Structure of Glutathione S-transferase:
Amino acid sequence: MRTLYHLWLDSGSRKIRILLKEKGLDFQMKVEKLWERREEFLRLSPSGELPVLIEENGISLPGQNVITEYLEEAFPEPSLLGGSDPLDRAEVRRVAQWFDVKFRQEVTDNLVEEKVMKRFLRLGAPEAAAIRAGHANIHYHLDYIAWLSERRKWLAGDHFSLADVAAASQLSCLDYLGDVPWEKHEAAKDWYARVKSRPSVQPLLADRIPGLLPPAHYADLDF
Amino acid sequence: MRTLYHLWLDSGSRKIRILLKEKGLDFQMKVEKLWERREEFLRLSPSGELPVLIEENGISLPGQNVITEYLEEAFPEPSLLGGSDPLDRAEVRRVAQWFDVKFRQEVTDNLVEEKVMKRFLRLGAPEAAAIRAGHANIHYHLDYIAWLSERRKWLAGDHFSLADVAAASQLSCLDYLGDVPWEKHEAAKDWYARVKSRPSVQPLLADRIPGLLPPAHYADLDF
């Protein structure tokens, strides 16, 4: 069976979990504790990155971008990149990239990496300045979600797309830590409520990491 | 006419210059001095990143990944992603990503960013430790190029592909600074000599940045 090596609070892993569900593909999940630096894992993912998808024929696909484009090409229906117009698809990729790179660097890395991953990877104590930066930056990104979703039904156009998946993957990690100030961002919250109600996203809401429980509203569809 | 906003030593800009030439597309280039933080540019590229391609209809496409996938979809011939098998294409994207992300972080950021970009962006003096790390890490990546090119004609298979373009874009920036120890890496040098002889790469070899001239071998096809 198709296998996804992942970590619970890795946003790229969450993105591929949602995509596989959207495309109706069966898979099993295996937690890869990166901090154990398993040699067998480095053979699957020479760059050492997560997630890694092992296809049914045994071929390994490392990295969220490689997996995303592969899934779109091998299983085009339903498409998460929008219609057939390359410019529409470029807009989906642009917004997805915003969350994959800019949001991750400015928010997720400052909060999830500092508070959780550093502990596991033994990289020292969390830096207070990074955590403050993450809490400050998230407002500006939630405003961007509001701006987009006031102009479009979903973040990159009329349809739920990779852009929504990318944004939800970042935000669901932060929401697990109780780090999203939803109460100050009504429009972003409305968009996220619609995302949470999708069947492809609900498995994420059932995640429970041993020793690190989410706040009560995490799985609540009416939060 | 199609316009590419770029910077001379930005590896992503170099990648798109090669791709446009490989696809036989005409374009003009405009230098975007990121350190001037032009408001008009931020309207073209909300994330502030280079390169940005303005298509003939005026639509702007920001970021090397968005532009790369757009060019492949809008102008599929010749393809730089290999054939039609999604697994072959995944291998091209995997190797390209290695150079776009891992090589850039471990080598290019430590050398080009520290020695050149920091000066323009007024981010302070170069850090000696970063420069040492860049010089140490490059050997390991040149060994990887040798390993791949001993097993395949080009880095991701039988054909020149996005993987070769990605690697060449990083290395040509470093070569401009005289920072590639070719003399210790014969197999990587042979691969790069083949890359340099491609018509799509030759315009890069004619680059001359005012006040920062490349070493004599930079444009030499028989270096």
Chain A has a mean pLDDT of 95.
